[in-house]
């Protein structure tokens, strides 16, 4: 060997190294001995390598040592540092450290034993030269063997894991397809998820934090100079200008009309109109006012939990959600196209246009990845790829990224719920009156909005996040916290990488219109505006449509379903109904969903108690809660009126029958004082 004066190929075998659930095969350890002369110490390390099963080379000169290392990339190098007349050991170490391969190499210095009372030498000069360890001269084979074995199981093993991780992330960075690394049980450990912002990598945990720009200190205008007009000097001219404005908001016109009507009205009418004006001047025009809390605690708690911003917060409590994208996904190969899905899944999807479609069967057969498969089928049926001018490969990658950012650990708000909402949205889009009211851009926006509407949901309500002072609540000023996060993250994930950017081929105007429609629909799922959306739909769609069908002489405008304002109301109502359609599903599906949402609320109550936070829905205590009562309250307060209005527009007799049957199921259980999902005899 021209590099080394002595080389050996000893009995070697590959070793298996585990990194969490990953198994990696490590090639036999290679050791380079750099000794100017053969002696008992070099022989000790040689035979120790033989015993450990390592490959070993010996170099006599610095030049041959460097050449040999660059050829072999040894994991361990042992340099004779006992005497300097043959070569400078520290200079040899520095020359090796100057090469790229040495980044993962452990270099050991063999030093002479301290003589007599001589003070122990410091290791700092060795460390500064690039050595990792110091070995006191000892030619005993067992001593040399123990030293090498400790290095292998310590620094060498750690360096090997680090190299493996670097390789993984390099592959992820350069790949053209989405990649998943799984455990033996096919649980995804690492995947390319195209996160935006800072990506902090821990051992198989991705923690996502947004990078915020530093805020700018904005000084008040009046403080910039002594010559600035004072507030007092500016106030009255401003007020005069306001009163002289000719711009009137619709509510202002209504108030002016009522004021004018009062002038010539009897006292009783004028008093009634005063009451009307008082109501109109409130900010919450569409939210009904509840009675006392004692009347119906289930309804009151649902309203408190779903329709408030959680301002009853405690000081000093901090709750930060950590983005963890370990999804319990399966070993199923991702389909390249809709025609590539496994037969068992394809057979299930044959029935996806039916309202009776069982999303839980799809969840089971796809191992909790229903969104990708249902998404491919539904988007294909509605020609989404053709509309967006994107390939099915891009769509598949996008669906995979979105599904990976749903939390499979959530009992309810996971990718199965997203798939269920997508299914309901597609079903509604197939109804004749809905189809005739919307154009293809609306349809595409609705399907995308349904897919992303709860992405990265933490399994806690907005009230919880606000009470806990979470990062998201602070970021979004306690207003529509989750809904704002879902839309923002969905677009971040989409545009971050061209491989999953389904919008990359559409022009700017189409993109902006589509983006606005998606944002509007996802924000409409926030429950604080529930009654506003329902009442606007009733007044702008249902009532004119009813008057039109009755041939009334009312001077109301015709239905005008295709007016942009009405199309917006229809899309909002559609996704709202799709989002909470569980009580309108067949009974078995309705019961399963009721169990899942109850479990998620129970978990929130448990956590609120652990953290000393306000309990926003006290009835959802797993030890005392009546699930039938909670479902009855939810249907009475939120579902019945909304689906009556939606049914009047879209004509959904099957759904309304399921709703009646399911309500009867919960009432029967409640009458029998049963607090569970089913009677014990039915379980």
TrEMBL record:
**Binding locations of Zn(2+) 2:** 454
Entry note: cofactor:
Binds 2 divalent metal cations per subunit. Site 1 may preferentially bind zinc ions, while site 2 has a preference for magnesium and/or manganese ions.
Residues reported in the UniProt entry to bind Zn(2+) 1? 417, 453-454, 579
Q: Which pathway, metabolic or otherwise, does it act in?
A: Purine metabolism; 3',5'-cyclic AMP degradation; AMP from 3',5'-cyclic AMP: step 1/1
Task: Name the InterPro entries on file.
Answer: HD/PDEase_dom, PDE8-like_REC_N, PDEase, PDEase_catalytic_dom, PDEase_catalytic_dom_sf, PDEase_CS
Q: Name one GO molecular function term.
A: 3',5'-cyclic-AMP phosphodiesterase activity
Give cofactor(s), names only.
Answer: a divalent metal cation
Q: Which domain of life is it from?
A: Eukaryota
Gene3D superfamilies this protein is in? Answer: 3'5'-cyclic nucleotide phosphodiesterase, catalytic domain (1.10.1300.10)
Which residues are annotated as active site?
Answer: 413
**Family that this chain belongs to:** Belongs to the cyclic nucleotide phosphodiesterase family. PDE8 subfamily.
Q: What is this protein called?
A: Phosphodiesterase
Gene label: PDE8B
